[in-house]
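Exercise 7. Predict the joint structure of the components listed below.
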Amino acid sequence: MSENMNELQSQSAEELRKKAEVTSAKALQILIEEEAEGVVAEFDNPGALLEAAEKIRHAGYKRFEVYSPFPIHGMDDAMGLKQSPLGFIVFAAGAIGCIGALLLQWWTSAVDYPVVYSGKPLFALPAFIPITFELTVILSGFTAMVGMFALNRMPRFFHPMFYSDKFSKKASDDGFFAAIFVWDEKFNVREVKQFFQSIGGKNVEIIHRPLEGELAQQN
Amino acid sequence: METATLKQEHHNGHHHVYVPEPELINGKPTFNTITEVICGVPEGKMPRLWWILFGISFAFMAMYLAVIGYLIWKGIGIWGNNTTVGWAWDITNFVWWVGIGHAGTLISAVLFLFRQKWRTSINRFSEAMTIFAVICAGMFPLIHMGRIWHAYWFLPLPNSMQMWVNFRSPLMWDVFAISTYLSVSIMFWYVGLIPDLATMRDRAKPGIRKTLLGLFSLGWRGGNRQWRHYERAYTILAGLSTPLVLSVHTIVSFDFATSIIPGWHTTIFPPYFVAGAIFSGFAMVMTLVIITYWMFPQVKQIINERHIDNMNKIIMVTGMMVGYAYGCEFFIAWYSGNPYEASIFMKRATGPYWWAYWSMITCNVIIPQVFWIKSMRTNLTVSFIVSIFVNIGMWFERFVITVTSLSQDYLPSSWKYFNPTIYDVACFVGSIGLFMTLFLLFLRYMPMVAMSEVKGVLPHANPHHPDHALNKHGRGHETHQVEKVAELATKNGGH
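Solution:
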């Protein structure tokens, strides 16, 4: 103990302050790495992002995402994504709309309230086509929208990506970003950072919860 | 135009062919330019002209609502409709407005399925137009009922009278068609808006506006996993809207065609109505685009001469389709050997409503012929004037169909010349006020162009665009080749 004190006393105040700063910066770095929810990197253009997506996939990462202000052609293949299942969901809803509409019209017009209008049969299929069609369309349309929200987990107002100021500012304007998240099995903050740098990512940033109090000022 | 083709070897050995497109947006914009130009409008101050137009439109809308209040209080007797002309301006306005809506869906859905990239500059705005036009349309049958508080009787709801609606009636089909059309149009519009609302959210300063934009953009992040489902949903909605838009005016025409009134009972009605709908709708889009130019000239970069030219071509083509339908109707009236049919058509052209008939022919068939000349198609003044004429002509078409047939039907003793009252005029003009008010508010608060879609059709949005290859490192002589071809591409592709 006394030895340490002697050592410290032998250093100038200036040196001590520098050392303290370095230590605290390191501590902050460790804290941020500890808190990391993912790592994000920016790419120059859609082409670069497409290549990056392929490289990320080939490197064996699974829980990653690429962000662009518009859909990029060929990105699903680059990321190794299957086709969206939305079509099947909508088809089922459309079928329900179609059959439901026919049942509704048949039951109300031919069973529960059978009145002859303009000499048409009680179950007048040609006259029932328009409403059958409209109900098929409206149910399918509604399902397409709501199904898309459900598959996309929307609405979701909070997401780690929004912690990054750069991302929040540019991603919906003209920025092309890729991120690998902490919930990937292979995730290791330092490795991912290096990996992004090696594939040409710029402004590589650790996504983390905003720090509180004094730490936030230091950051 | 000659297009340069570039075969570029991708790193994993696939061959990608890059064909530069002719420019859709003026002045080689970056992605950011699009954001700035479009977001700049709702983020900035509205020009004086906006306030003037808004003031006028709002006044007309207020008058409209007041007249509707009076109409509900007093009954539809304040209109000129009476036996035998039971359908007059109200139904004319209804059909006219629904038709106008159709261009929006055609642009957003049909042109999407046909991969017409130029649609991206105008689809948002014409979809908005569709919704507002359908709202205006929907009000007329509602107020025409007189007892509007019974409107819900149109829905198949269980009730104490143990009655059901008549599903074999075209009026019932109308209820379903119009409400489906309005709902699907709103959903299509909203789905398209989400990425753009997110862009506006990201640019907004913290406050109520940012919160609202955040709420309505539903936390959109633009990740490719989201885009994947989003694009599928968009395609499905486009695929649903395409037959829907054809069905809506078909069903509206059934209101007429399934009756036995001469001049209405014809099989040409569905295609004829749909062509007329697209015709009038494109004219209204043109009118609105040019009014928007007056207020926000910066938009000319994104909605440029090429769009105006294309829209005018469609106006001319659909104008000739309705022209053909007018001729065909006459031919069938004679060829059918039905004296009532022949008589009503002769009366349309030469009878008491000759002025309406010939206004229709002049506005719809003759005037759009100026668009054979390219310089006319790209001239904004000419386009604006023609679009107004088409709007007027299409209103007359609906009027001629509705009123002439009713005013002189089978029984000469009940023939009657229809005279509108001041309330007919007020309702019609007022509905335009409502439409313009909604449209101006849309310009004020929403991104008027689908930014994410326009960005997606810019040449450098293509991941295989040669510019991207130039940025890559370690490509050796290949880079040199790519550079050369890229140069060629810009020489030939640009104009």
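Discussion. The first strand of chain B starts at residue 6 and ends at 9.
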